[in-house]
Amino acid sequence: LARNGNKPAVLLCDRGLMDGSAYISEMLWKNVLQKFGYNNVMLRDERYDLIFYLVTAADGAEAHYTLENNMTRTEGLVAAKELDTKLQHAWIGHPHLHIFDNSTDFEGKMRRIINAASLALGLPTTKRSARKFKLKGPPDWNSLNVKHETFDVTKVYLRGSLMRPDSRAESMVDVRSESAGKLEASERVLYSFVRRRTTGHKSSYNKTTMIELNEVIDGKIKTRTFERKLIMTSRQYNDAIVMADPDRNQLLQKRTSFLHEGSYLTVVEYMNVKPGLCILRVQESKDDEDAFNMPSFLDVEQEVGNVKEYSAYYLSVLGRS
C-alpha cells in the first residue's frame, strides 16, 4: 500500500518481530532463528527504519495500568514492568531506537512521539538531534552487568558530497506549486554516506543523505537541514562505495549500544582516524534534557554536540587524522 499510493507514506507496525524474543529463553530464540534461516540483524536492523518503544503504564503511570481493557493482558504491575524491560532489551542494537517513558502525562508522551517522528521524516520540529559527549575512553564492558550490542562499522562518504569542508554541493531540486510555477521549496544535497554495521558474520547496510531545505513560509525563506535514510542491500552498498569520495577516509568505528534510564546510548570508538577518540551519543526521548543522568561507569570529558572537530564528517577529511 505504501509503495503504490504515489504519496509519501509511513508504514506502522504494532509489535515488531523482535518482541517474540522477550517471551522465550535466549537459547530457544536462537533455535527458532536457526530453524527458519533468520538472525537478529535481519529481523531488527534490515526490517525496520525506526523503533518507537512506548513504556508500559505499569512503569511510571501505575494509576492508569489496568487489565480491564485488554483480555489478553494478565500481568500485574511487577510482572508487567519486568516484561517491559525484556521487550526494550530485545531492540538494543537497532541504529534508531527511541524509548518513550511516562515522565509526562499521556498528551506529553504523544507530543514527544510526534516530535521524534517529525525529526526522522524531515518535518519541522523543535526537537534537537542526539547529544554527543567526548569520553576519556570506553568502559570495560566485560566487567559491567549491562546488556549491550557491539558492532564494527564502516562509514564511507560518497562523491558528490561537499568536496571541501566549507563548500556547497551543486545538486538542487526545486518544488514548485501548480499556480504560476511559484517556488515553494528547494532541496540541496549537502553530503551523503553509506554505512555497514557488522556483528559476528552478519551485516546490515544503510545510506544517509543530509538535505538542506529552503522553504517559503509567510513570504520569508526558511532554511533547515534534515537526514534522509534508506536501508540498503549488500549489493547496493557495494555499488555505492565505488563512488567513495577520494578526498575522505573511510571511517572504521566500533559502536556499542545500551539502554540507561529510558535513553538509548551508543559509545563510538574511532579505530583508524583519531584512534582512541571515543564519543558518546545519547538519543533522548524526554522533554527535559536536564533530566538525563550520565551512567556512573562512563568517564566524560565534555559535551561536544556543537564542536565540528568531533563530527565524523570533519574527521573523515584526508590529512586530519
Automatic annotation (TrEMBL):
<feature type="domain" description="NadR/Ttd14 AAA">
    <location>
        <begin position="4"/>
        <end position="107"/>
    </location>
</feature>
<dbReference type="GO" id="GO:0070300">
    <property type="term" value="F:phosphatidic acid binding"/>
</dbReference>
<dbReference type="Pfam" id="PF13521">
    <property type="entry name" value="AAA_28"/>
</dbReference>
<dbReference type="InterPro" id="IPR053227">
    <property type="entry name" value="TRPL-trafficking_regulator"/>
</dbReference>
<dbReference type="GO" id="GO:0035091">
    <property type="term" value="F:phosphatidylinositol binding"/>
</dbReference>
<dbReference type="InterPro" id="IPR038727">
    <property type="entry name" value="NadR/Ttd14_AAA_dom"/>
</dbReference>
<protein>
    <recommendedName>
        <fullName>NadR/Ttd14 AAA domain-containing protein</fullName>
    </recommendedName>
</protein>
<dbReference type="GO" id="GO:0005525">
    <property type="term" value="F:GTP binding"/>
</dbReference>
